Amino acid sequence: MKTAIVALVCAAATTSSAFAQVRPPPPRPIDVPGISLRPFVFVAEESFSARQTFNAVFGRSYQPLWGGGLNVALKNGFYLDVSALRFKKTGQRAFFFEEQAYGLQIPLTVTVTPLEVTAGRRFNVTSQLRPYVGAGLGAYHYQETSPFDDAPFDKRHVGYLVVGGVEIRVSRWFAVSADAQYGYVAGIIGSGGISKDAGETNLGGTAGRFRVIIGR
Amino acid sequence: MVLLFWVHINGQGVNPARIFLYPYTLSAIDRGLATDVIRAPTGLSPAGRQVRVTSTAPLDRTGRSGNHYIAGRLIVKFRDEMSAASRLAAVAAVSSNSSIPDRPSYANFDVVRIGPTEDPEVMAASLRSRPDVEYAQAAYRVRARMVPTDQFYQRYQWNMPLIDLERAWDIQPAAASSIVVAVLDTGIAYKSAMFRFDARSFTDDAGIVHNALGTIDVPFAAADDLSGPGRFVAPHDFIWNDDSPLDLDGHGTHVSGTIGQLTNNSGYGTAGVAFNVKIMPVKVLAGDWDVVFGAAPDVGGSDEDVARGIRYAADNGANIINMSIGQSGPANCGVNPNQDGCAPAVEDAIKYAVAKGVFVAVAGGNDFQNGNPTEVLAEIASRVPGAVSVAAVDRLKNRAYYSGTGSWVELAAPGGSQRGFGIDGLILQQTLDGTVGACLVTPVACGIAPSLDRPRFDQLGFFFYAGTSMAAPHVAGVAAMLMQQGIRNPAAIEAALERFATDLGPAGRDNSFGFGLVEARNTLRGLGLAQ
Predict the structure, then answer these.
(1) Which end of chain A has fewer surrounding CB within 10 Å, N or C?
(2) A97 neighbors B489 (Cβ within 8 angstroms)
(3) Is the pTM of this model over 0.80?
(4) Is the CB of A93 less than 8 angstroms away from the CB of B531?
(5) CATH topology (fold) of A32-214
(6) Res. A8: pLDDT tops 60
(7) What three-state secondary structure class fits A207?
(8) Domain boundaries for CATH 3.30.70.80 within chain B
(9) Which residues of A lie closer than 8 Å to B, measured between beta carbons?
(10) Does domain B56-140 have CATH number 3.20.20.70?
């Protein structure tokens, strides 16, 4: 903020006095570099689309995630996010009967490791508040292990995602953001296991994310 | 060391008393593996191995429905609001020679006494037409579903790996230690004791008349590959109406062995499916010697005993009930259970048990070659979620030649067959040595020349049997293991057993194998998230 005020004062001092009284010049944009690289970390709560499946195995369909990445922000408002996250949780093997899940007390550990790339645009509503929207692709690595598996299940697939949120600049080098991200990841679940019985094929879902961003 | 004390057991109704003399402290006489006595299935119905007793005890009769019933009694379920006087008036309207004794324990129905020559099916039909009667039926006979033949794990127990039990035991080495399985059968060789009986004259199946032996002392021994501390709970005998459901036949002991034979016990004997379960012996079927000793008019039991046995088991902590028993009857009991030949009393009892969280496994029937009649009890099981009827397969997973087929078949399990396999195709477990017991009255059926004139039930060996009676306990055992893993809803247990069964025959459910061969490991393991 202090930087902006100083910049405005300097700008006024270099303008002719006549024009200054009649039509003041538009404020100069915030001193944003042409391209900035901003690392971030985030925590998220994802509501998985495969609700019955996750309920059966973990007892609930919303799960915490954490991760981090790099935001590449361009001066023109466009940005590119590259993030990696991880979900690892141990539930139990189960089966369905009349839409109710019955757990079998046999541990089942699921690890999901997505690598996501999102491109989008930020909008300068105010100097502190920047809504943004974006879309992207993810490479999803799914692993499932259980003590009595014949072999571990390990599968990778590409998914799609859209995101929308708002970034709040707290200081020159520090911002936070809150957004909602929807992911669609087919091709991993749904062809076997309890997800097949549930008829659920989307490993994605809707995540509410809170990010801490370092950089201008 | 012999403890001498006398306890009189008071029988009820027509049952004579037997006298418990003293605990029999000697161990069982181990006859070892019995491979030399082969009793191949002949296609004869179990009725073919009856002993005829020289007595005035009422024998069962064949009704107009073609089913056997016990003469002199009628099972009636009056509506609850009906007074005792109204009940008496109702039965008096159909029989001038009727009475209603106190309701027996573990029955929600009355057992009406009628004249021994009166036709209970006719009376039942008349009573069923009354609005104040829920159901009425004759006391139809039920019989053990077994084909006993002759006789250690690696060599003989092909049935266990056939349903992937070895890998299932990896998942659950505790093998259902907290689960109680009630075995409704001919009793179990569960304790060692000496009993005194009054043995009547009888005619064996060779037509030879044996004079009455009078009062004889008979030794019993517990099956040492089945017994252990805390193993047996709440025993009850509905044939002798006491708490000593001793096996005088061998069927119940063999069935119990498949459910829970002691396993990994110093390399001895055979293995059981859920080898740590607690077993509740509930005797509802009479053996030949029960008949000779006057406790029953004929081998087998009746719907009355079975219905009471089911309720007893459910009320006394059973989690699973195995019923390797059956009776044939009309095909449409599901549409109209309140008709001759059907067993609404048993159906009511099975529903009662399932509602209390008890899973029920019922043998699917051995009479394929005898006209393949509908199995009434198995058919009931097929209509009750939480009860399953079980067909039999041989060691190549083909339908066993005797295993009944029909809409009532829900699952298949190893029942064994000697055809094409000899004894290697049969089910081996420890049980009574029939050559010194049951076979003394059925030497022809056993194919032996009896060497004794009085039976003893303290000699046990490892014998080969075949039948859907042997198939059902495999399912009961796997269900017990699933229950140990926290699945307490009987309907869910049935769903899991069927969901993870190995489909045999035509794709999907069929009348020979139902949903397929029970698969222990996959059932216990369930599903992962994606695989």
Answers:
(1) N
(2) yes
(3) yes
(4) no
(5) Porin (2.40.160)
(6) no
(7) strand
(8) 56-140
(9) 53-54, 57, 91, 93-95, 97-98, 100, 102-106, 108, 110, 142, 144, 146, 148-149, 153, 155, 188-195, 197
(10) no
- Which burial class, exposed, middle or buried, applies to B452 when counting CB atoms under 10 A from its CB (0-12, 13-18, 19+)? exposed
Q: What are the residue ranges spanned by the domains of chain A?
A: 1-31, 32-214
Interface of B with A in 118-177 (CB under 8 A): 167, 170-171
Task: Using a CB–CB cutoff of 8 Å, tell me whether B525 touches chain A.
Answer: yes
> Domain B7-52+144-525 belongs to what topology?
Rossmann fold (3.40.50)
Q: Pick from A8-22, B37-51, B135-149 the range whose average pLDDT is largest.
A: B135-149
CB B235 within 8 Å of CB B140: no
Buried b (16+ CB within 10 A) or exposed e, A112-128: bbbbbebebebeeeeee
**In the predicted model, what is the mean pLDDT of residues B320-349?**
93
Q: What is the distance in angstroms between the Cα of A28 and the nearest Cα belonging to chain B?
A: 55
What is the predicted ipTM?
0.82
B114/B94 Cα distance (integer angstroms): 10
Burial B148-181 (b: 16+ CB within 10 A, else e): bbbbebeebbbbbebbbbebbbebbeebbeebbb
pLDDT tens-digit map of B398-442: 999 999 999 999 999 999 999 999 889 999 999 999 888 888 888
The DSSP bridge partners found for residue A96 are A101
Q: Inter-chain contact B489–A57, Cβ cutoff 8 Å?
A: no
Ranges of CATH 3.40.50.200 domains, chain B: 7-52+144-525
Work out the burial of residue A28: count CB atoms within 10 Å of its CB; fewer than 13 is exposed, 13-18 middle, 19 or more buried.
exposed
In terms of DSSP H, where are the helices of B251-343? 251-260, 288-292, 303-315
pLDDT band at A95 (very low <50, low <70, confident <90, very high): very high
Query: Given this model, what pLDDT does residue B54 score?
Result: 42
DSSP-derived pairing of the beta strands B236-237 and B278-283 = parallel
Residue of B nearest to A110 (CA): B529
Q: What residue type is assigned to position B177 of the chain? A: S
Kindly tell me if the per-residue pLDDT of B452 is higher than 90: no
User: What is the predicted pLDDT for the residue at B443?
Assistant: 86
Q: Could you read off the pLDDT of A171-212 as tens digits, one per residue?
A: 989 999 999 999 999 999 999 999 999 999 999 999 999 999
Instruction: Assess contact for B93 and B122: CB atoms under 8 A.
Output: no
Whole-angstrom distance, CA of residue B423 vs CA of residue A112:
53
Asked if residue B67 has pLDDT above 70, the reply is: no
Residues of A in contact with B487 (CB under 8 A): 102, 104
